[in-house]
Design goal:
- The complex is a heterodimer.
- Chain A is built from 13 helices and 18 strands.
- By secondary structure, chain A is an alpha+beta fold.
- Chain A folds into 3 domains: about 150 residues, Beta-Lactamase (2-Layer Sandwich), CATH 3.30.450.20; about 110 residues, Beta-Lactamase, CATH 3.30.450.20; about 150 residues, Heat Shock Protein 90, CATH 3.30.565.10.
- In chain A, the strands form 4 sheets. In chain A, strands 1, 2, 3, 4, 5 and 6 form a 6-stranded antiparallel beta sheet that branches. A 5-stranded antiparallel beta sheet of chain A has the order 8-7-11-10-9. In chain A, strands 13-15-16-18-17 form a 5-stranded mixed beta sheet, with helices on one face.
- Chain A is rod-shaped, with a radius of gyration of 70 Å.
- Chain B is about 55% helix and about 15% strand.
- In chain B, helix 5 packs parallel to helix 6.
- Chain B has 2 domains: about 40 residues, Arc Repressor Mutant, subunit A, CATH 1.10.10; about 120 residues, Response regulator (Rossmann fold), CATH 3.40.50.2300.
- By secondary structure, chain B is of the alpha/beta class.
- A 5-stranded parallel beta sheet of chain B has the order 2-1-3-4-5, sandwiched between helices.
- The chains are: A alpha+beta, B alpha/beta.
- Chains A and B meet through helix 7, helix 8 and helix 12 of A and helix 4 of B.
Chain lengths: ~575, ~170
């Protein structure tokens, strides 16, 4: 499991990765917006050029067609005999936008026209109260174009009034009705399905709407919500005869739609119109969709790359971290181990040092004590003031202490030889009963004086053991001596021997004071003192058992002890059997 | 009945009648005549009394023989406990105290004797195989009056005993 530190580092790492991914998406969105605004601008510029072309073309067309009528009106310097009929026919065919061409005489009566089926011959303006435009051109001598309306002929069109003068005398007016249908047919090819053209005049009236949304003759302002400022702004610019681009949101049945619009004015004599070209905002998106896709692909690939690289980096860091942790753990445990072993060694050294100091102190005491007795006795003897009986007592004391000193020196030499492996064993088959008899002889005086019974129990057929005879006797003497020393008067020391496979087992047991369990493990340690009281009481300086063990092991055997305090001790020796 | 209680009674009887025999005293106190004789011999012993506390019998025996020839009354104790008991019951004039002893060592014995008002006045000479300066200082701080290292010169020891005893009587 992840620990707390790792969890935190994972969180920090995740935050960094998220920031990177977030910034990539942020820049992707920014790039999208920038690309979109650039493309949109270019698109609108292009649409505006198209719109300008359309408006210019329409304006040119209309002005040219009206100019034809002006030429007809002025060419004859009066009214021709056929009342313009032949010119009308020519103009009608050439212009191709007129619904009908008529000549109205100075009295306001339609007197000729073409095509004949559309001409209301004899129709009088005065009697029908439709004289305003007629009188306007008579008075001004200028061409006048009325606002497009639904005419009495049943079409939506504009009236073009061209006055005819002869010698400055007003002779009448040529009237041409221009149908919107006829104009638009000239530009049928300009739009595709998503782009729509509309035309409004300077009052906002809709003259043409290719999309068919709004009815001709209605006012565009009536269709626009007063809050739709973007669209109102566009319409105001159009009504003011300006040229430019705009955009607005338009409600549709599917919700709202973003619309781009370009507009350009048409100037046709007294008429001021404006052409608008709308295209849906989606059109721009359609163009840059592939750019979007490519940008998105780049962003997505970048994100995936970052995620991949960061996960790899994280895994590497995690493993590195784990390796480091493991290394640190390993080193720590190694340090701990070496520390423990050093501590243990230190304790052991201190123990040894303590034992050494204790031993030196003990040896010094043991050496000085007999010396003191000898010196005191000798000095007293030198004074020559004592009785013969006292003199003998003192001499015996000196001899006894010399022996004691010699024994101690022997022990010290023995242990020194055992420790430095300098002791020589003269190994040979030794008869166990013989060696034991010899040992018991050595100890008998002591046991008898202490009142301790010595018993030996071994089969007569016991095979010989491989040992150094003298050292084996020394071992038995040491063990028996110890047993007798620590056994009270009336107690018994028993020696048992038995065959056990390749070995002979000898058990020296006593009914003495026994050994406390806490000391059992140490009694063979050199210089180990169970209790100075008992050692003192029994004599010796704690080397006997260490020497015994060293000798037994030197002869290829082993020794161990079993003891119960107050009941007695058992020293169990195993010795190698001699080959028969 | 221990000896400390007997002695004042014997002394009181002898004060009343200086010519009273051992037998008469024993009869009036209801005790064995030999014990009374022993106590009277003890009470009439005017020699200076030395207590040797040492676990090593040979060393203390040799010293005892030498000091007895000098005219001292010498008694022995083989360990610290026995030393403490004899210091109180025998009321010695000086104690020769070995340090390295089983059970209770010499330092401890010295400390206990010097802490007890009944035995505080008894001078103590420490007697040991330990020759380190620290040991000497420790012994002296425990209240020992002198310190002598084993093996010692017999004449020197006798001189030191005399000096310490003289110091005690001044």
């Amino acid at each position: 499991m992840l620990n707390k530190k790792n969890r935190w580092s994972l969180v920090v790492f995740a935050v960094i990765v998220l920031l990177l991914v977030g910034s990539i998406f942020f820049f992707w969105m920014r790039a999208n917006d920038e690309v979109r605004s650039i493309v949109e601008e270019q698109y609108q510029t292009q649409q505006l050029i198209l719109t300008q072309y359309v408006s210019y073309s329409i304006g040119e067309l209309l002005n040219e067609r009206v100019l034809l009528l002006e030429v007809v009106a002025q060419k004859q310097q009066g009214v021709p005999d056929d009342l313009f009929r032949s010119e009308f026919e020519t103009v009608y065919e050439v212009a191709d936008i007129y619904y009908v061409l008529e000549f109205i005489d100075a009295n306001g009566t339609v007197v000729s026209g073409y095509p004949v089926e559309n001409v209301p011959l004899g129709f009088n303006l005065y009697s029908n109260n439709m004289t305003w435009a007629f009188e306007h051109v008579r008075d001004t001598g200028e061409v006048y174009i009325s606002e497009p309306v639904n005419t009495m002929e049943g079409i939506f069109g504009a009236y073009v009034w061209v006055p005819v003068f002869e010698n400055r005398q007003f002779r009448g007016s040529i009237l041409g009705i221009v149908s919107d249908e006829n104009i638009i047919t000239q530009f049928e090819t300009t739009s595709d399905s998503s782009n729509y053209v509309y035309i409004v005049d300077d009052k906002g009236m809709i003259l043409y709407d290719q999309s068919g949304t709004y009815e001709k003759g209605t006012n565009y302002l009536d269709h626009i919500d007063q809050n739709d400022t973007d669209r109102l702004h566009v319409l105001e610019a159009q009504m003011g005869g300006m040229m430019g681009n705009g955009k607005y949101w338009q409600e549709t049945t599917d919700g709202s739609e973003y619309v781009l619009v370009s507009y350009s004015p048409i100037n046709w004599y007294n008429q001021r119109w404006s052409v608008g070209l709308t295209s849906p905002g989606d059109a721009v998106d359609d163009i840059i969709l592939s750019v979007y896709v490519k940008l998105f692909t780049v962003a997505a690939v970048s994100v995936l790359f970052i995620l991949f690289v960061s996960s790899q980096v994280y895994i590497i860091l995690l493993n590195w971290n784990k390796t480091l942790e493991r290394e640190v753990e390993k080193k720590t445990s190694e340090l701990q181990e070496s520390n423990e072993s050093l501590t243990a060694a230190n304790i052991k050294l201190k123990e040894l040092d303590g034992l050494k100091n204790e031993f030196l102190s003990m040896v010094s005491h043991e050496l000085k004590t007999p010396l003191t007795a000898m010196k005191t006795s000798s000095e007293f003897l030198l004074e020559d003031r004592c009785e013969p009986a006292v003199r003998n007592q003192l001499l015996a004391l000196i001899v006894r202490n010399v022996d004691r000193q010699a024994r101690l020196v022997d022990d010290l030499l023995d242990i020194s030889r055992i420790e430095s492996n300098r002791i020589k064993f003269n190994m040979e088959p030794v008869s166990l009963p013989e060696a034991l008899d010899h040992s018991i002889e050595n100890i008998r005086r002591l046991s008898e004086s202490k009142g301790v019974v010595l018993r030996v129990d071994m089969p007569q057929s016991l095979p010989a053991v491989i040992a150094d005879r003298d050292k084996l006797i020394q071992v038995f003497v040491n063990l028996l001596n110890n047993a007798v020393k620590f056994t009270q008067r009336g107690g018994a020391v028993t020696v048992l021997a038995q065959d056990s496979g390749d070995n002979i087992e000898v058990v020296v047991s006593d009914t003495g004071i026994g050994i406390d369990p806490s000391h059992v493990g140490h009694i063979f340690d050199k210089f180990y003192q169970i209790d100075s009281t008992s050692t003192r009481t029994a004599g010796g300086c704690g080397l006997g058992l260490a020497i015994t063990k060293g000798l037994v092991e030197g002869m290829g055997g082993s020794i161990r002890v079993e003891s119960k305090p107050g009941v007695g001790s058992k020293f169990i020796l195993t010795l190698k059997k001699a080959q028969s | 009945m221990n000896t400390e209680n007997i002695d004042p009674k014997i002394l009181a009887l002898m004060e009343q009648n200086p010519h009273m025999t051992d037998k008469e005293i024993a009869m009036s106190l209801g005790l064995d005549e030999s014990l009374i004789s022993q106590r009277i011999a003890f009470l009439s012993d005017t020699r200076e009394k030395i207590l040797i506390v040492d676990e090593e019998i040979d060393a203390s025996t040799a010293l005892k023989l030498a000091l007895e020839t000098e005219g001292y009354n010498v008694i022995e104790a083989l360990d610290g406990y026995e030393g403490l008991m004899k210091a109180k019951s025998e009321n010695p004039d000086i104690i020769l105290l070995d340090i390295m002893m089983p059970g209770m060592d010499g330092f401890e014995v010295c400390q206990l004797l010097k802490a007890d008002p009944a035995s505080r006045h008894i001078p103590i000479i420490m007697l040991t195989a330990k020759g380190e300066v620290d040991d000497k200082v420790e012994g002296l701080e425990m209240g020992a009056d002198d310190y002598i290292t084993k093996p010692f010169n017999l004449k020197e020891l006798k001189a030191r005993i005399r000096i310490v005893l003289r110091r005690g009587t001044v």
